[in-house]
Amino acid sequence: MFKGTFIYARFLPRGIFAPALVHSFDLGGDWQRAEVDITTFDFYYVPKLADPDWFVTVDPSLNFDWENDRRFIGLAVTFGRSVGHAFGGLAQLYAKPTVLAGSERPGDFSVEVGVKVLGF
């Protein structure tokens, strides 16, 4: 699998706007696995909050699954909080609900909850 990513970040007075282009495709492998050829346009926005320990990321996206000739849109919003140092980095707790729309979407709704360690 190859995943090429291009991100442009614009630092605004009240946040960051960072559109991204991501293209993923397989380079071979198991013949029983589905082929992958997907392009995603993400439009990340990270507002600057009054308390720097809290963060929010808003991520609307346009998705093009070229292998299956499907197109759909998505919206993910990540809510999180920095909780201190761990494993030589900064630990964050987060929740990321996502909704997909369009008649060709692969799902309806998901929620990701986790812990990240940054800068270790």
Description:
It contains no helices and eight strands. A hairpin with a 2-residue loop joins strand 2 (10-12) and strand 3 (15-25). It is mainly β and 120 residues long. Strands 1, 2, 3, 4, 5, 6, 7 and 8 form an eight-stranded antiparallel β-sheet that branches.
Q: Quick recap of the structure?
A:
This protein has 120 residues and is mainly β.
Measure the end-to-end span: 26 Å
Strand content: over 45%
Shape: globular
Task: State the total count of DSSP E strands.
Answer: 8
Q: Strand pairing plus helix content: what structural class?
A: mainly beta
Helix percent band: under 10%
Mean pLDDT over the full residue set: 93
Largest sheet, if any? 8 strands, antiparallel
Question: How large, in whole angstroms, is the Cα Rg?
Answer: 17 Å
Helix and strand sequence? EEEEEEEE
State the oligomer. Answer: single chain
Q: Flag low-confidence runs.
A: none
Task: Please tally the helical runs, counting DSSP H or I stretches of 4 or more residues.
Answer: 0
Question: Features of this protein?
Answer:
120 residues; mainly beta; eight-stranded antiparallel β-sheet
Secondary-structure map with pairings?
Blueprint: E1 2-7, E2 10-12, E3 15-25, E4 37-47, E5 54-65, E6 70-86, E7 89-101, E8 109-118
Antiparallel strand pairs: 1-3, 2-3, 3-4, 4-5, 5-6, 6-7, 7-8
